[in-house]
Amino acid sequence: MLLVAALIGALLSVILPASSAQAATAGNVTGVTRSGDTFTVATSSGAAARVVIARSDIFRIWLSPNGAFTDDPAGTDLAVNTAFGSVGATLTDAGSYYRVGTPAISLRINKSPLTFALYRADDSTLLWSEAQPTNWTGSQTTQYLTRAADEQFYGTGLRLGEWALRDKTVPVAVSNQWTENTNASPAPFYMSTNGYGVMRNTWSPGSYAFTAPTSLRHNESRFDAWYFAGTSLKDVLNGYTDVTGKPFLAPIWGLELGNADCFNASNPDYQGDHNRLRHQTTPDVVGYATDARAADMPSGWFLPNDGYGCGYTSLPETVTQLKAKGFQTGLWTSTGLSGIGWEVGTAGSRAVKTDVAWIGGGYKTAFNGVKQAVDGIENNSDARRFVWTVDGWAGTQRNAVVWTGDTSGTWDAMRWHVPAIAGAGLSALNYASGDVDGIFGGSPKTYVRDLQWKAFTPAFMTMSGWGATGPSAGYQDKQPWRFAEPYQSINRTYLQLKMRLMPYMYTMSRNATDTGVPATRAMVLEYPNDPVARGNQTSGQFMAGDSFLVAPVVSDTTTRDGIYLPAGSWTDYWTGKVYNGPGWLDGYSAPLDTLPLFVKAGAVVPMWPQMNYTGEKPVSTLTYDIQPRGTSSFTLYEDDGVTRAYKTGASARQRVDVTAPASGTGDVTVSVGASTGTYTGKPAARGYEFALRSASAPGTVKVGTTTLPALAGKAAYNAAATGWFYDAADRSGTLWVKTGSMGTGTAFTVTATALTVPAGTAVGGTAPSSPISQAGWSVRYADSQETASENGAAANAIDGKPSTIWHTKWSNGAAALPHEIQIDLGARYDVDSVTHLPRQDGGVNGRIGSYELYVSDSTTSWGAPVATGTFADTAAATRVAFTAKSGRYLRLRALTEAGNRGPWTSVAELTATGRPSG
């Protein structure tokens, strides 16, 4: 309990505002001096600001309250790359402000008082401006920015919940709570649809309120931030990771499923169950590896120890035996890394999972722990870093996988995991994950559904030993092969699909290393100009790379509603049915074995032969799964997959271009370029296979000028070395083509004549109903409220806190019933339900009896009520559903008091659901 209290106290210290009465500001500008691309601003208070232009689109503002620039706790830990060469920035005195200019930006230093504003180089397109001077107390510094009418915000690390942050207040702080709307790996970084990003250069906790104005605070008496201007969100991520480091490239086996557990339970120091069967000494893990291979189940690595007294025995022998079965070995530590040199260099361990018991203090402590793990792997082997951590920070993307902490295998936890992991990429965290089906609880159904969609993220892992109590033969622990049917077969299907997609997934991860753009992408990254994709209406789905749209099922249902398909054509991966967006797809049939999965028009997806682990079979044939429509391309990335030789250029790329009709019937040409570059193990030749979606059989198929034979059926095709076969029943029509063996250094073309691009079915509809955020709400009117003897302000009814209440006046005379409250929702909605929560403080007076609810665009003409009724005289919440009505204002009239105790009304919370309206 003391730990809980301490954590709550720490969190409150981050969330609660500082006293503005004690805040100081810099005052007025008294002059600006320069030294190269560094500009120093003197002020009337003695404070000073330093502007460092690192690149034409990247700069730093450092504000020192005492005028000295010696207090720099972050140093080069976060901003590791800042030497981009001379910029030659200009300085101009424009009267009321100084202007620092580059070919990309115009930074205004307003003189009276000192505030900053950033424009594009045209000096008229505003990116951000300070609404008031940055202020500081002895312990906190806050910047205030104006907010544009439609500006949206993203970032703050691995936030456990929705990724669109407008109107939200987000703690950028370590709490280790691992519940919705906390931050598992906070990052002092965010970016805006206005075209900029910012990283506070600090180890101190903070809080970002994306309100109007935004309020951006950290718990230190200094201000230090790096700014990144860009023409797109992807551009901003590229600039941010140019400074803080690009996402690391995991070993290719790290993209396979991993599992962590204690297999040394006989150790007297172990804090868990000493009698676990098949978990008595570390080599017992080999039995689980044997089970996996016997079940034909893809999986790639084990962490056969978990600290907490477990430890390990016979580690070198275990590593050798696991490697013989296609598994890599890592260790999960709760105590530190004192033995990592031997564990990596001699025993052959290749991964580390840092535990909260060791690095749970977060900030620089956690950052240094991760760096120690990275160094332990890379200084003692030629292997790549593969470290998992909680409590990451800005820059963690260059060192580690972040995961969501100790969560439970529930539908509700799965619901917020989807936006959490997709949203982490908006802070350049390419490898973000959550334990499949959580670490606690779970069920066969939740496991299957969770594994389905996480198979489309780069890195994922199961955590066994904390799951079901009293496990049965059908659900023993978290390994996917220890389930009864049909669950085991469904698990196998999705793990096999991930293995086939490995060249696509690996290429997406290399793209992240090159550009900072993650493999798992919130919809806004791919569709930044789509107003639906910009917000949380699409937070329940994501893009896996640039080709797959994944819409997880996160409740116990066989129907998925509310799938948003942006503009363009989308093919159902399983059936081949084509949908044309933009619009909403409801009623999608999604039985337990079906993940709603769509492929973007023009997609070019490389696939390996089926295998259970990387290297099990040679990639004798590379298959390209193609959705021909218009022009499109894909550049395959390959290297040895395990060493760091790629950093010195040991890798290869091969581009594939596709030209096809935009609609109707015509020729489709696939141009395969020569593979450029070399690496150890690169094949000199391989076969190529192409699966092209078409609503009709081709006229002819050629490789170069050679006409391929048409084969009579699937069996003949499978037996042939070259040729083609059209399967009308395969996903609404697929042309299969084999070229035979081709040198990887040889370019060639495949041309199929008279293929028909599917016409597709238009989707439409409206956004699904969802909770309306209270962040934009305000009380328009309340006829009575008690403020003399208690805090019964009407605003308490919409503050998101069940512990506070609106109570009508009772001291010094009470107003007669009926009472009412009118709420401004902040925007227009199609409202379809209101939930009323009575007071939760143990009191009973003021509980509402009979009521009326109204929705309107006017507070002077409400019209007829949308719902009437009577609430029970209990403390339970009641949801009132009604036919959706459009309006900006909500009105609740309390006609009677439930227990007839007096002329009072009280409410703990009012919430509503609906969808944005025009």
UniProtKB/TrEMBL annotation:
Keywords associated with the record: Glycosidase, Hydrolase, Signal
One BP annotation, GO: carbohydrate metabolic process
Keyword Signal: yes
Protein's recorded name: Glycosyl hydrolase family 31
Organism domain of life: Bacteria
Residue span, F5/8 type C domain: 760-915
Listed SUPFAM superfamilies: (Trans)glycosidases, Galactose mutarotase-like, Galactose-binding domain-like, Glycosyl hydrolase domain
Lineage: Bacteria, Bacillati, Actinomycetota, Actinomycetes, Kitasatosporales
InterPro entries from the UniProt entry: DUF5110, FA58C, Gal_mutarotase_sf_dom, Galactose-bd-like_sf, GH, Glyco_hydro_31_C, Glyco_hydro_31_N_dom, Glyco_hydro_31_TIM
